[in-house]
Design brief:
Blueprint: H1 3-26, H2 29-56
Helix pairs in contact: 1-2
């Protein structure tokens, strides 16, 4: 996986975790859900890149 893509996907997951934590702390259900969605999106992108890398080797 390219370092740039890995960092971008990891950042997206971390941003989602932060939003989820903020949403839980403030009782904002919408923010919590958005955070979980961002985490899932980042994790899915990372898994896709890892699969691509595995097929290349």
């Amino acid at each position: 996986m390219g370092a740039g893509k890995k960092m971008k996907n990891t950042a997206e997951s971390m941003k989602g975790k932060a939003k989820e934590a903020t949403g839980k702390a403030t009782g904002n259900e919408s923010l919590t859900v958005k955070g979980k969605a961002e985490q899932a999106k980042g994790d899915a992108k990372q898994a896709g890149q890892k699969a691509k890398d595995a097929l290349k080797h």
